[in-house]
Amino acid sequence: xxxxxxxxxxxxxxxxxxxxxxxxxxxxxxxxxxxxxxxxxxxxxxxxxxxxxxxxxxxxxxxxxxxxxxxxxxxxxxxxxxxxxxxxxxxxxxxxxxxxxxxxxxxxxxxxxxxxxxxxxxxxxxxxxxxxxxxxxxxxxxxxxxxxxx
Length: 150
What we know:
D-ribulose 5-phosphate binds at residues 8-9, 66-70, 99, 109, 132, 136. Keywords: Isomerase. Its EC number is 5.3.1.6. InterPro entries: RpiB (IPR004785), RpiB_LacA_LacB (IPR003500), RpiB_LacA_LacB_sf (IPR036569). It comes from Sphingorhabdus wooponensis. By secondary structure, the protein is an alpha/beta fold. It has a single domain (2-140), classed as Ribose 5-phosphate Isomerase B, Chain: A. It has helices spanning 12-24, 42-54, 69-75, 89-97, 113-125, 134-140; strands at 2-7, 28-31, 60-65, 83-85, 103-107. Strands 2-1-3-5-4 form a five-stranded parallel β-sheet, with helices on both faces. Helix 1 (12-24) links the parallel strand 1 and strand 2 (28-31). Helix 2 crosses helix 3. The protein starts with a strand and ends in a 10-residue tail after the last helix.
């Protein structure tokens, strides 16, 4: 699978470890940065990751920052991306099964490496359930207008 991974400076070590873990599992990994510990802005890397999903250069994404919150918000600004902030394998599995999430987000200050790997394994091994979930997912990929939702 083609997987893009990006972080901010707070999650650099976790990003590097997870990129290596994914490569060792046989995935084609695009590391979108950053590449050193200099302070960076997580939205820039969230946007890069979302663009990789939107243009099809990546099938799935891994987004990391200190809490996972900021970068997941940045990724989700692109309607082609559906990022789910997770902290354990059940939420990772449900994000795929119910929401067809194509990006997993985690917080480096909140999750250990083994739990992060378990989340990635659940995320990548779970198929979208379709059926009743499809119409809801379709709505997630539609930009909101000023019209009140139904």
